[in-house]
Amino acid sequence: MKNREEAIRYCLGMGNTYEDYPFRDKNWTLMRHIDNKKVFAWIFEKDGHIWINVKCEPGFLNYWRQIYNSVVPAFHLNKDHWNSIILDGTVPKEDIYEMIKQSYMLTKKNNSKVNFKK
């Protein structure tokens, strides 16, 4: 995976997703679930590379960061739940796909809020 278009195409292929541009800055592409509107991938350009922010299971955050220098704590998001993948050619596409799939599954869950009686 090398560019924004390829990242968007892959995310759209996961099903029931859409791309969103909610900010005045068109550099940011958000990939969302149709059903719950949750974001599972933040795609943007920084320092001459495309970056993708993805949600991770807590046990996998450091795993990916230790394996690849181009997987870092997420830019502009909670570093305890999100990683950034820098598309500089050093992370195999299969692992990029796996991280996006994991983020998709983690955000797909419908986390119902508990209603407390007064």
Structure description:
- The chain is α+β, with helices and mostly antiparallel strands and 118 residues long.
- It has helices spanning 4-12, 58-67, 93-108, and strands at 17-20, 29-33, 39-46, 49-55, 71-73, 82-86.
- The chain has a six-stranded antiparallel β-sheet.
Question: Key features?
Answer:
single chain, 118 residues, alpha+beta, Aspartate Aminotransferase, domain 1, six-stranded antiparallel β-sheet, 6 strands, disordered C terminus, Putative DNA-binding protein (MmcQ/YjbR family), YjbR/MT2646/Rv2570-like, DNA binding, YjbR-like_sf, DNA-binding
CATH topology grouping: Aspartate Aminotransferase, domain 1
**Gyration radius, rounded:** 14 Å
The CATH architecture name reads: Alpha-Beta Complex
Tally of strands: 6
The H/E string reads HEEEEHEEH
How many distinct folded domains?
A: 1
Q: What is the global morphology?
A: globular
Kindly report the average pLDDT value.
91
Q: What is the structural class? A: alpha+beta
| Distance between the first and last residues' Cα | 51 Å
Q: How do the strands of the widest beta sheet line up side by side?
A: 1-2-3-4-6-5
Give the helix proportion (percent range). Answer: 25-40%
Strand % is 25-35%
Q: Major β-sheet, in short?
A: 6 strands, antiparallel
Poorly predicted ranges (pLDDT <50, ≥5 residues)? 112-118
Number of helices: 3
* CATH C-level name: Alpha Beta
